[in-house]
Amino acid sequence: MKFDCQPGYTINDQKTACIPEPGSAVPFPFLLTALLLCLLVLGSYLKDKHFTKVVTNIIALIGSLEIIMYLMMVIHSYVLEEYAAMVLSLIGLLALLATNILFTAYYRQQIVVKDQVFVKWIHFFPKTQTWLPILILLVNFKFSKMFYSGFYGLESTMARFGRHAQFFYLQRLTAYFSFVFCYCFIFVADIIILTRVKWGYQLSMLAIETLILQLVVVVLTIVEFRKGADALLNSQGEGFAMIKNKAPVRVMGFQDEDDHYDEGVPDIDEDTLIRSKIKTEQ
């Protein structure tokens, strides 16, 4: 069968349909965006070295790009009739959304309900309490790392956990689930695209970008998890109420009479609550 393709289109390799010709692809937009996000993290580190968790912030911010990259891979693969890559990319996209739902459900059932220390901490940050779970559900579960990232020394990013091991378990569970059911399919789609799609298409650049950024996230996640739950999440004495003798402060009127939250910690009236940071000993 002979095809007369319109201007701007060319016959595909299978000689079955007209597809867009290679055009002026945007050169690696997601790699450039990721680089800018890393510079943002560098600014946080320079501003507040003591609290900024560099690896944690990079994972969270790069993760925010994944849903857009996967969606674009699905669309561009469909346009170029690379259906195998399209199906694999779609599976990866759906797996990411499923991981977001898994994290959100576990977070609400096991953290919000059972970790009273975390609940009392997040009470002071209503915007974090409202918007971060929405971003976790709709964009990427890796946004949950912002709870303890220390981003620019903001107290709303220095969560306090009573069950920090449980939150760490949730982090590992969803990360490994994503690696298996999301990243693996995207990696295979990348290989198919790089072997079948000519250079010059945006899809070929997307394949390179997802391949690189996913490898970066995997390596950084392994590095982060090797620190353990205590080092990452047990922020006793950091980012919450303090008094001059550097003892933690408990807010009066916020605990029940039979509440054992931080027993032995001196009380302070909520109106005079002081939030300060403890710098490491020189």
Automatic annotation (TrEMBL):
This is Uncharacterized protein. Keywords: Membrane, Transmembrane, Transmembrane helix. It comes from Favella ehrenbergii. The chain crosses the membrane at residues 28-46, 58-79, 85-107, 173-193, 199-223. The keyword Membrane applies. The keyword Membrane applies.
